[in-house]
Predict the 3D structure of the following.
Amino acid sequence: MNQAELIQQVADDANLTKAQTQDAVRALLKTIMQVVADGDKVTLVGFGSFEPRKRSAREGRNPKTKETIQIPAARVPIFSAGKTFREAVNK
């Protein structure tokens, strides 16, 4: 399912217009990205949580040339599924 299909499904389920749903979904995603980019955690009980984590610098390898390269440290977004979400997937 892509974003357009998600918006259509939510619009149908919530009896909203596609435009209203599109605005709401985009605002939700933008807010989650901004909060995590600012270093905070977003928790949606039952669904999961989004948070930034630090990844240490490490050595990598260029698969084409087999040359060793240095990969710099970075902050990366992490999603952890909540219990209700995990249970729904495992049904």
